Amino acid sequence: MMCLLKYWLLFLVLVLVAFADCKSRYNRHEIRKIPDGILFGTATASYQVEGAWDEDGKSENIWDRLTHSKPCPVKNCDTGDIADDSYHQYERDVEMMRELGLDFYRFSLSWSRILPTSFPDKINKKGVQYYNNLIDEMLKYNIQPMVTLYHWDLPQKLQDMGGWTNPHVVDWFTDYARIVFELFGDRVKYWFTINEPREVCYEGYGGANFAPAYNLSGYGDYMCAKNLLVAHAKAYHMYKNEFSRTQGGTVGIAASASWFEPKSEKDAEAAEDARQFEWGLYTNPIFSKNGDFPQVVKDRVAAKSFEQGFFRSRLPEFTPEEVELVKGSSDFLGINHYTSKITYRNASITTFPSPSFYDDIEALYDYDFTWETAASSWLKVVPWGFYKLLTKLRTDYDNPPIYITENGFSTRGGLEDDSRIAYYRQYIDAMLDAIDEGSDVRAYTAWSLMDNFEWRQGYTERFGLYEVDYEDPKRTRTARKSAYVYKEIIRSRQLDYHYEPDTTLPITIDDGQ
Ligand code: NOJ
């Protein structure tokens, strides 16, 4: 008995030591200087904040359709019908950006608000006016607009024709992109074509978590991936050929990328496979030297498809011309990063149906029980995973310019959000480590400016630097403690773990205007 107790104590001490070591790695600096030139901002997305879902000529998109379906698929039957009411409250939104002292604000455009028929035959003047107002208001205060063309809210009509699984989406998207560049490109100099291709394709077409909830894992996700990449590349080249000279902007994509850490040495291959399937599928064709889908993904899906009795791979092939078109089609790599997963392989555990995307990966995921969890169950605090991810992107893709397009932490609400503050400090610290070693990070974006519609979780998971009161028809926004801290990081251009803001004082605008 005593012996057993001894082993338990030893185990406990080892866990505590390991935990303390991880923690200390990311608050070892008293004060850490942030190199000049890195831009700081926050982000949101159209469906998550705008509301006004059927106002002023906007037509239905796939999230309107999903959230209005019965039985309601979202927690508490929440919808984005009103959301943060940003359609009417953009001036307050810009005021908050000024309070924070942001260099830029990343937001997305609602395709069905600008083109209610989905096509360029009819441009909705009122929808365009809203975005003009927002952009002009930001520029008045020297806040750069960073604009995402597509953050998941496809016009429903296009979905009825197969959405991202229909190869014609390439033309639909480039036509929409042309209109957008023509309308706003005189003032917008930072463009992201598509937000999180993995979530668009896997969660929407492979799984059923996001609209349009096709649930066609192992087929729909791969068809979407190919069409999406070609659509992105066509829009990129159109900008370069037709708009770049007069507008002088820069165009990229915003990919989600978690870090996959091997459980043990023998799981190194499983972890690498996970990285290549989960984000390499989208980044390799654009950023690798040879382009195309990652070799391991091509080989694995082809081999499994033949074993399963298919006549060809479930992963569609790029033609040689398409490989060339997609390769290099981004001025920078946008990365949305939140968390890490422990990865391993165990052939005797068959969890996934075959065929399916996860059956193709042949890897299993887990979390380390010492990792702190946010309100979102998938979001564990692992700052060193961010460092490892940035290091790998630097080495694999020949050090591309990187924009951190999202990074953030969820709570259940409340203004005293010390856990969010700790997350931001540790993740920015990890990013600075990668920068010190040569990573070319040019921008950092906190998700999010304010609480918003967190997809299937509705308003139950809060990511905002500002709290939004959803009981209040005015959707009043209030600065959280993290807003004060983020403001100070931007103002002082340094990371100070000991800085304590006085939140009894109102957060004020210091831009001298
Ligand atoms: C990434 C998505 O782009 C964004 O829409 C979402 O709210 C955050 N992740 C948090 O889950």
Automatic annotation (TrEMBL):
<keyword id="KW-0326">Glycosidase</keyword>
<dbReference type="GO" id="GO:0005975">
    <property type="term" value="P:carbohydrate metabolic process"/>
</dbReference>
<feature type="signal peptide">
    <location>
        <begin position="1"/>
        <end position="20"/>
    </location>
</feature>
<comment type="similarity">
    <text>Belongs to the glycosyl hydrolase 1 family.</text>
</comment>
<dbReference type="InterPro" id="IPR018120">
    <property type="entry name" value="Glyco_hydro_1_AS"/>
</dbReference>
<dbReference type="GO" id="GO:0008422">
    <property type="term" value="F:beta-glucosidase activity"/>
</dbReference>
<dbReference type="InterPro" id="IPR017853">
    <property type="entry name" value="GH"/>
</dbReference>
<dbReference type="Pfam" id="PF00232">
    <property type="entry name" value="Glyco_hydro_1"/>
</dbReference>
<dbReference type="InterPro" id="IPR001360">
    <property type="entry name" value="Glyco_hydro_1"/>
</dbReference>
<keyword id="KW-0378">Hydrolase</keyword>
<feature type="active site" description="Nucleophile">
    <location>
        <position position="406"/>
    </location>
</feature>
<protein>
    <recommendedName>
        <fullName>beta-glucosidase</fullName>
        <ecNumber>3.2.1.21</ecNumber>
    </recommendedName>
</protein>
<keyword id="KW-0732">Signal</keyword>
